[in-house]
């Protein structure tokens, strides 16, 4: 039994010695790898207690990288959107400040006026169709859809679908009426003259807003009806210079006044701005009715026509896929009595992007961390943008040919409306929203960079090997391994005589 025990003891000692050698060699290899790579281990198992820190840190670092990518993309988009809105504001400002009040003499003036509007509209459409990496910036929640129709489609339509020019023509007919009197009837007899709206609640034509007179011989008043009407009565012969003033509401919400002045024989004055004093009050009233008829007809072909164009442009550009624009119910249009909602089948829908309820900014949230997202969405049909397009499109769609006696007056009336609308276009709020978002993106960029550095420091503590510490351990391991080799070698050379 003692012999077996001695053998077993020797075998166990040899086994332990081999295991110790292997462990030391493994430690030496591990330490050499740490010294050469600078890392504690090449797998999570080798990190020991630091594995949990490494896993959570790597996950956090991946999240930060994703947010940094979002921030970079958002920064590019916001920069381009801001440039686009700024350029739109410049176009609107230039239109408001430099639009001439008169066409000028000859065809050059006629052409240059509309060409400037056409060029402005083309630029605006191009800006609103800006795309980055397949994403259209002004299309709301539909970034893969081109938001704005082409210039030609917008103005001239597409097969089977009416464009703005057709809608303007229809509106002009409906507002002018079959006799070109703005859906008003000039009447009266004897010493009276009347001006009566065609029907109560009619959405077309001129609306009698007020009627006043100066002097003692003429009285004028408005009755609400229905329908509304103006009544003018001569109580005697008016003196030269006495006036009748009528105020009208136009389809686009503007007001226009018409003043007719009594003129004596030999005085200057035309049917457009005066009426002749006759032999009797009845003769004078007849002259007043004739002058009133002519003046209303002139108002229809000039200022009402411009208001019709402006109203049609507003209606057209208020349209979207979920709310197509209103159109005149017809044909016939001159006798139409109602508006109807168009459809994508018969009317060009100029804005094709997302138009769901809610803020345009909310259509493109950018996640930059655990907090609320940064909102950088935009739609081409926002009120401020649409106001600029209305002004440009209304002028670009109209024509003022040389030789047309109404061209200059129509243009002047439209230019006044466009200058006022373009000058007050509320683009500032959109620009402010985008500027705030840009600032938030900048702050998020700095914060994420700091977070990344902090996480990397934590990971370095868990994953990176300390060169000085590794070198010391390596030296100690080499010393122990060398000592073990020497001891083993010495024992291997010993014999039984060395113990005696």
Describe this structure in words.
The protein is of the alpha+beta class and 500 residues long. It has two domains: 40-148 and 351-464, f41 fragment of flagellin, N-terminal domain (Up-down Bundle); 150-339, no CATH class. It contains ten helices and 14 strands. The chain has helices spanning 2-37, 50-98, 106-128, 151-156, 164-176, 281-317, 383-397, 407-423, 427-463, 467-493, and strands at 131-132, 135-136, 184-187, 192-197, 207-213, 218-223, 229-234, 243-249, 255-263, 274-276, 326-328, 339-341, 365-366, 374-375. The strands form five sheets. The chain has a four-stranded antiparallel beta sheet with strand order 3-4-7-6. It has a four-stranded mixed beta sheet with strand order 5-8-9-10, covered by helices on one side. The longest helix is centred in the N-terminal third of the chain and has 49 residues, at 50-98. The two termini are 23 Å apart.
